[in-house]
Write a structure and sequence with these properties.
Chain B: Keywords: Cell membrane, Membrane, Transmembrane, Transmembrane helix, Transport. The complex is a heterodimer of chains A (about 290) and B (about 325). Chain A has about 290 residues and is an all-alpha fold. Chain A has 14 helices and no strands. The chains are: A mainly alpha (about 290), B mainly alpha (about 325).
Chain lengths: ~290, ~325
Amino acid sequence: MSESTETALGLTESRSIGGRILKAVVYLLVLTMFAGPLLALLVGAFGDIKDPTQLSIVPSGFTLENFDIAFDQGVLKYLLNSFFVVGFGLLLQVSVSVLAGYALARKVFPGMTLAFVAILATLMLPEEILAIPLSVVLADLPVVHFNLIGTLAGMIVPLGAWGFSILVMTEFMKDVPRELEEAARIDGAGDFRIFAQIILPMCKPALGVIGVFGFTMIWDQYLLPLLVATDSSSYTLPLALRTLRIDPAVTPGVVMAASLLALLPSVIVFLFFQRSFVSGLSSGALKG
Amino acid sequence: MSLDQADPAALPATGPAPRKVGRRGGGAADRRVRGRRGGRWWTPWLFLAPALILSLYFKFIPMVNAVTMSFQEVQPYLGNRWVGTDNYSTVLQSHGFREAVWHTIVLAVGQTFGAMALGFALALLMEGQSRRLGFVRSAAFLPVVVPMAVVAELWRIMYHPTGDGMLNSILALAGMGPSGFINDPDTSMASIMVTGIWRGAPYDMMIFLAGLTSVDRGLYEAARVDGASRWQRVRHVTVPGLRSVFSILFILAAIRGLRVFTEVFLLTNGGPNGSTEVVMTLIYKLGLEQNRLGVGAAGAVLLFAATLILTIIVQLLRRRESK
């Protein structure tokens, strides 16, 4: 990229007083529009909100009562369910992806194109469209005849088939120099050692991308848990929010408190790993 | 974000990939390939097995099931009965389904264009490298990583229909309102759209920002020397430079829009009075609440076909454009 930082509007480099004021107003407006509702949520969670009309960006007192009530309603259990699902789901998704990526990027074998097309095809088949038959399959897995309905496993196992991470890993692993691998092979290392000790350690940036992306994606899951959960003991936190809201004894402040707990993990992950996250966004959308 | 939004994100990226794979197999690479064929023929399949088995179980078998179920009357314990295309005619002739298709299209189009326009405007405003900008951009991006379920609950409360609800008091400041928002059939659709745009625009902004870095800066200076106004620079330099970004975002958003579910399910669940029923909420109700699995499956297959056709059309258009 050149040294010139000229932009389309030339707004950001304007140094005149008028320009600065304009800039400040624009950014303030943007912040209010996008961060404002989240600020209201924060204020609502710690505030004394008994009625939806009291929601506001201006703090009204500070209390932890909402969280107390939320925990009485079993929010801790839902939170733990969510962590369980995201933990094992991510572990599964990442392991599946790096293994498949290794084969697709570093090997040439008969049937490879077929395997690749099969992985691509999974991208065309999102849960939303498959919801009904997926719930039938989950109730009675073909051949092994397990019933995963009502179990956390049912929310985890389907997460393993996520084409996006496989493709990101494949692309990245293609760029690891051949020489390293060949040297290891001459030293007598087998496929699995080459994979685990040479290729994988070189792929840390890509692991970051699929890790952060996978985390936010799994944490946001709604339909899959909705299909699988049968009663509140297997609810994840996003799923439980609706039940909380419907309960007439629960005030909006409590729903906001539970919502805050439900959004914090993915926001924290995003803020810490912004770089990986953004490069994942663009690797998903901008190639080609 | 429904970083679920992430998975269709990979779609266009993967266009040229299979060709690349094919190319690597042939010609000069052959010798090298043979040289590093360390393991047995099944080693790569061993590495691929988990991915393929899971895809088989949770993508391909359900897809095949969807197609077969769509031709059957699904009766638990009694065995399924083959009914030919009955389910399809039921679906296609039902008033509710046609309404839902129309709502889905309206919502998809509105959200796609709304989020793209706002996202593009935001990207233009926030292009640049200062640290303070980075902060504003991150803050503006937050809605994308907030789980959809939280977004829906938050907006439900903000949309509180009385005059002292949060958004209604803001409308009052502007001398408008109060609006019933999601409780009024006239405004329910627009309200869901606004929520979707709020969550979608920052995502589009980020992609546009990434695209903007590849626009040739020199062209801006040249345009300035030629006496082009800001608006002309955007129109004649930026927009053409971002053409591929626009088309990619369009596909992503349109496909995402067709299968919209969570926000509608949580904000209105199709109400009030069916005014926001979309295809996915209808399918969910048919299949999982009324147990009419066959009819629901037929609806799902139609939705899949629509997504597929849309993807293919756009891919063809893009290919022609790039020639």
